[in-house]
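Exam prep: given the inputs below (a chain plus 6-phosphogluconic acid), describe the expected output before reading on.
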Amino acid sequence: MTMEVLANLEEIVERAKLLLLQAIKQKKGDIFSLVVAGGSTPKPLYEALAKEKLDGSQLHIFWGDERYVPPTDPQSNQKMVKEAWLDRVNLPAANIHPMPTYFASPAEAAMEYQRHLESFFALTPPAFPVFDFVLLGMGDDGHTASLFPHTEALRVTDRWVTVGQKDNQPRLTLTVPVLNNAKQIVFLVSGASKQQALQAVLAPTGDNYQYPARLIKGNVLWLVDRAAFGKNE
Ligand code: 6PG
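Solution:
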């Protein structure tokens, strides 16, 4: 795990954009699978990416999690990423892989997204897909994706997609082993409200089920600003 403490969200966005563009370039035109995060922090990154000239044929976009609402709902991560980025570029529709939220149950939707991923990666469990680049945020409570404290989703290790639960709102989320299997994971964390959770998540020991972002291991880079890290000077 490495961490970079940057001045502010603007610098986090610039750094994340540079890392992502470099990673895409390194794949020299081969398929590049990016997992996008929801929430508010990554939105300026998506807006910045909308100004970049990207090779649409190689880039495939997946979601790390989704609120179980229609794609027209203001809560929808699909809606947020499309409005900030994807609707402004000419990426082929076949390269955009939102999580489905039109099934009768979130469990059915999770199974469908898993089937979609299995077909895309031409893989089935017990293997896990290897995403090229995963963007993640972290909530004030230390959750990431839709892996919330003390929920069943944290313990799902035999599936790629599962149902997360925020209070009584169902979500879809990639599972811990899928996220950890990525070539590169980049957390974007900004703001003083994240300070306590960030310290708990980065501490050498702690409760992984209280602070689920602690479960994310592997090639992880934390891009945090001074406000989140607690260096306001
Ligand atoms: C979501 C996200 C979630 C988000 C954190 C941080 O669906 O909300 O995937 O995990 O990354 O809640 O959200 P902010 O960036 O808005 O603080």
